[in-house]
Amino acid sequence: MTLESMGIVSGVIMMLSFPISFYAMYTKLEEAESYLRFSTFIVMFKHMFKAGLFEGRMKRLFAVALVILMPAAFQWRRLVLVEDVKAIPIRLKLWMVMPFLLTLFSITGMVLSWLLTT
């Protein structure tokens, strides 16, 4: 696969991740935040970005995804309880993490194809 086609595929993945992100933001985010209601990190994020674009839902979605992906790092800082993260159902964890990872991988692919193209 050439670098140009890698950039194009990454762009297509990014465009396809938008509907998934919006669905997760408006249907699954509140449910996931209810499992993490004792999390200092999530409560602070929800309060701080509530007045932003889309009520800060995209930032909150990515914050919940980070907590799900790295609960031990957040517990080490006393921002989250690992027991709360383990209580989240697997399907809900998937809906929280999937938009984050799709966006991350597509941005990485686009940046790498841009940097390595001469």
From TrEMBL:
Residues annotated as transmembrane: 7-26, 32-49, 61-77, 97-116
Name of the molecule in the record: Uncharacterized protein
UniProt keyword terms in alphabetical order: Membrane, Transmembrane, Transmembrane helix
Domain of life: Bacteria
Organism phylogeny: Bacteria, Pseudomonadati, Pseudomonadota, Gammaproteobacteria, Pseudomonadales
